[in-house]
């Protein structure tokens, strides 16, 4: 039986997901300490298992670096599994708008680089473990890399960059910093075309960002359309997670929402 036939067969299989579905995804995924074999931060060796920990994404499990604890991302962190991970460094209530709280320890997450340059960044050696590939989300093997806000949930399918195994890849970050004057807060949001964090309250996320807002909107619409949400979406402990039998409905919900969003854009 070919891989394509097996994947197609499993796609049509109807079953009810186990309540601990998130944990089961973690248990069948390549562990972070097996995928990331060597780490350098600021040019110094560091234990990879102490700085990377698993996170759920729209393409399964990923290993996150410099992402704050769930308690600083979600309003009800107990509704989100910590996937049996241990976070070795303290996090602080950081936001892009407010920066670090006063008196935050220097070793608190999110970490700050000492300066620019390859020697002051993060370097890793990765093991793709291609012998274990089965029904991959891409027609190839390797890795996906995503740069994101530390208080956001990763969305690899839309924004991930492909990284080939067996090669050295250099990722250069050239940030564009747009700062707003406090004086524009008195202007209407429609006029300034942006929102301050306190001007929009989300149901699941503690802090408003555009991506958090979009993902929460996708979750709400999928729930109303399919009576379930995808496993990677924000949810409470009583919400049903979509199974394989709900895939077509969830895909239709995403298409409808994307079409509506595109129609609303000027």
TrEMBL record:
Keyword rRNA-binding: no
Major site of localization recorded for this protein: membrane
Pfam families recorded: ASC (PF00858)
Recorded superkingdom: Eukaryota
Similarity comment text for this entry: Belongs to the amiloride-sensitive sodium channel (TC 1.A.6) family.
Name under which the protein is recorded: Pickpocket protein 28
Any one of the GO CC terms: plasma membrane
Topology in the lipid bilayer: Multi-pass membrane protein
Gene Ontology MF, one: ligand-gated sodium channel activity
Key words of the record: Ion channel, Ion transport, Membrane, Sodium, Sodium channel, Sodium transport, Transmembrane, Transmembrane helix, Transport
Localization per record: Membrane
Aminoacyl-tRNA synthetase is among the record's keywords: no
């Amino acid at each position: 039986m070919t891989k394509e036939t097996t994947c197609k067969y499993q796609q049509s299989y109807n079953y009810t997901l186990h309540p601990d579905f998130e944990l089961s995804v973690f248990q069948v995924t390549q562990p972070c300490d097996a995928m990331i074999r060597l780490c350098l931060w600021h040019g110094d060796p560091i234990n990879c298992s102490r700085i990377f920990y698993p996170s759920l994404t729209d393409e399964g499990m990923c290993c996150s670096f410099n992402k704050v604890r769930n308690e600083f991302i979600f309003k009800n962190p107990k509704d989100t599994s910590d996937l049996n991970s241990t976070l070795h460094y303290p996090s602080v209530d950081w936001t892009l708008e407010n920066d670090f709280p006063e008196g935050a320890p220097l070793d608190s997450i999110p970490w700050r680089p000492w300066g620019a340059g390859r020697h002051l960044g993060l370097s890793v050696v990765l093991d793709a473990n291609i012998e274990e590939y089965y029904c991959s989300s891409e027609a190839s093997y390797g890795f996906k890399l995503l740069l994101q806000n530390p208080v956001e949930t990763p969305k690899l399918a839309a924004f991930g960059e492909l990284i080939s195994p067996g090669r050295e890849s250099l990722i250069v970050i050239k940030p564009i910093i747009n700062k707003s004057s406090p004086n524009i807060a008195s202007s209407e949001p429609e006029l300034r075309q942006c929102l301050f964090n306190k001007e929009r309250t989300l149901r699941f996320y503690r802090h408003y960002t555009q991506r958090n807002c979009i993902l929460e909107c996708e979750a709400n619409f999928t729930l109303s359309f399919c009576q379930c949400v995808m496993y990677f979406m924000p949810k409470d402990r009583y919400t049903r997670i979509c199974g394989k039998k709900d895939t077509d409905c969830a895909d239709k919900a995403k298409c409808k929402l994307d079409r509506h969003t595109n129609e609303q854009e000027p």
